[in-house]
Amino acid sequence: MLDKLPVVGRFLGGRVADDAGWRRMEALLRKCERRPVYRAWIGDVVVCDATLARRALLDSDNCLAREPSVWQFGDKQRVPAATVTELNRWLHGAAARHDVDAAARIAVVALAAASGDLHRAALLAALDSVADMLGFDCNPELAAAVRVYIGDVFHAKLVNAPLDDAQIARAQGLASRVAALLTTCDADLPAVLRNDGVLTGAARGEVYLHAVLSVVGASAVMLAWLACVLHMDTVAGVDTSADSRAQVFTCKPEHVALELLRLWPPASAHGRRVLKDHQVGPVKALRDDDLVIPVFVLHRHRDTWPDACAFAPQRWHEDPRPAAFMPFSAGPGACIGSQFEIRWLAAVVRQAATLGSLQLVQVGRSPCANTMFSPPRCRLETP
Q1: Residue 313, SS3?
Q2: DSSP secondary-structure letter at 335?
Q3: Dihedral sign computed on CA atoms, order 202, 203, 205, 210
Q4: Cβ contacts of residue 287 below 8 Å, gap of 6+?
Q5: Is the pLDDT of residue 3 over 80?
Q6: Over the stretch 316-328, which tens digit does the pLDDT of each residue have?
Q7: Which domains does the chain have, with CATH numbers?
Q8: pLDDT exceeding 90 applies to what percent of the chain?
Q9: pTM higher than 0.90 for the full model?
Q10: Distance between CA 322 and CA 241 in Å, rounded?
């Protein structure tokens, strides 16, 4: 789920990009409260109305591209539809069988023992928690390669650190290495990932790494947000001082998980390519336009949410999930791991007391708004 909105963040490095991306998100929120649907200067059709956004994503008239970006590889090459079905079935089955409470314990204990960059620590903690689910626990070499990909390559994208040519070549080499290791892996994996066929060589390794990332990315980002809520008085414009954060321990874990996903959705926007001309409210979306759903805006829109910028898990006690709540998109292109993520995050919240001893030092001023919407840069220090 690539964030399409903070475009500036893709061209500037480090903290400058973080600040620019966050300012753009705040400005977009103000703009969308005045204009529910509009065409941006770069040509995107931006839909800030929850009803129109959900209708667009459900896409009953087949107006939008539906393939989740997770199954793209190389230069945006797409996995064939039949193979996508096989991969989705594998991931859904693995997620349904996975013990989320055991996984949450692994992730929380790993983060509590970590030091250094919060984002990297959360990525590796989340990775440890799903090793058996995704099959890379069967081979130490495979586990090491996956760890480098998540902890180094994806971490750089997450915190707006530009990848140079050497790092890009390293990522491609990792994909080839992973493909070779999958051939001899004892895990229960789809045939398409084990041997060359529909996918060959580096493409096969890259698709497997994308599958790992589809589970680990959002989990890690939400684990990092939870750590910030527990140790910072203000998080991305939200009051998380003592009275507020006490709700982490007094409200139902499922409600805390939903509120975390509302305020800090892993993807700040969902995008779909337009396949044929059609009307979206007052704006006509044209073929090859991009339709953009700014989830961050929908989740903080004052017309939908009382005290929209308050951390208030108790709001979920009575309210069903409204149309505006779509952290993992909706319809045919929705994130394949959405239900697993909510269960996993609720299980992490149940273990939140373990994170009480973290020593968290904020390094960046603004959230990282790039590949995913993640917390400001922070450092974990050894107690």
Answers
A1: helix
A2: -
A3: positive
A4: 274, 275, 276, 277
A5: no
A6: 987 667 889 999 8
A7: 7-359 (1.10.630.10)
A8: 61
A9: yes
A10: 27
